[in-house]
Amino acid sequence: MNLLLITFSFPPAGGVGVLRALSLAKYLPENGVRVDVLTARNAPAVGKDPLLLKEVPAEVKVHRTWTLDLPFWLRKSVKRIVTGGKAKAAPSAVQVRGGNPIKQFIGNLLLPDPQVGWLPFALPAAKRIIRERAIDVVIVTVPPFSSVRLISRLRKVFPELPLLVDFRDEWLTTTLDLVSFNSNSRARMIAHKAEAEAVRDATAVVLVTEAARRELRSRYPGVPKERFVCVPNGYDAPAPTAKSALGTPVVPRERLVLTYIGTVYGSTAPGAFVEAVLGLPKEARSRLLVRFIGHIETPAYRELLLSLGDTVELKGFVPQVEALAAIRDTDYLLLITHDRINVAAKFYDYLGGGKPILGAVHPQGDVRRLLEETRAGRWADADNPQAIRQMLIEAIEGSSSGAPPEYERIAAFHRRPLARRYAELLREVAGTAGKTTQESARG
Length: 443
Prior knowledge:
Elements: E1 2-7, H1 19-27, E2 34-40, E3 61-65, H2 72-83, H3 101-109, H4 119-132, E4 137-142, H5 149-157, E5 163-167, H6 171-178, H7 185-201, E6 204-207, H8 210-219, E7 228-230, E8 256-261, H9 271-278, H10 282-286, E9 288-293, H11 299-306, E10 312-314, H12 320-328, E11 332-336, H13 345-353, E12 357-361, H14 366-374, E13 377-381, H15 385-396, H16 407-411, H17 415-442
Parallel strand pairs: 1-2, 1-4, 2-3, 4-5, 5-6, 6-7, 8-9, 8-11, 9-10, 11-12, 12-13
Helix pairs in contact: 2-3, 4-5, 5-7, 9-15
């Protein structure tokens, strides 16, 4: 089977956004799938991570095109102009009208997102690769969500070709409000139209959480429910066991180290967590060190974190190998999410890292469910500073978190078995498409 994997970002671009596509390119060849990757040569990224290229098998052919997207630093500057430099608020059913017309013009200029400038390059390249490389099935992975438009455009040219859209994040209910470049009424209308067309024309719609799968199924009740499939994200480290770090006592040190890895942005806003730390008893706080490793979206978030003084260290972006080393060199892993539907990719790296998790999470979210199912840590309501503070005190004092982790459940999230599941899905949709084509020919 010959697969074309279309992904805007791919190594040497760094960050968690490239890891799902990388894992498919890495492990699908083991399952009898030849992989071609189509990506943007100059895709903006939080940083470069050339070491990730060594994980791409030699037989994987990578095709790179140009994009008209803005450099990462410039895109963030424009976003600050559109948002006024303020952090995204929680989703609201009320849409505010009016506002600065210049900001509205800038915000509406590039929709659904600034990466829409890749499509004029990606579409002709995809058509050429499909023909020249005898492609049997295509995956378009998003975000950036503008790439969903490739599904309908390719469907017009290849009416029988199996096309999968792979949503690493749910779009309209959460991501559009929490972290998108623009979320006004025009942006929402364009986003809904693009998503609806992709769902209509895709052979399968892949989501990474059960909550996201339910959300899209409810949004498109006329689409067969079998079209929506969940294949979660995962981790690449050796699966933890009772004999590994997750089951061994932490090494005593002067201060307990709590490490957060990833971007700090709308859905991971740290306000309640900072309030919880500031309210710790003096003795407890003196025994705590919180490390933030990754990009911080706004100056407001940076100032908020710096208000913790010598309790916090801000490390900035580091390559994946260093991030994994930081996971091993900590006592606890900090997870913050206000998102009910999406599960950050770093959560799975946390699972594979073998250290207990302290989660400030949405109480009705999939992250809470997974924490409870895997027993990989403890959680508190992300908007409840008192509950977060109590969770921190229990960790500092070494209170037991209860039953041991479910190692078998955690092992199921390794990227190798997940890629095997994805390969089975590809064969299923390719087989169904082939059968349909044969029946049409006979008819």
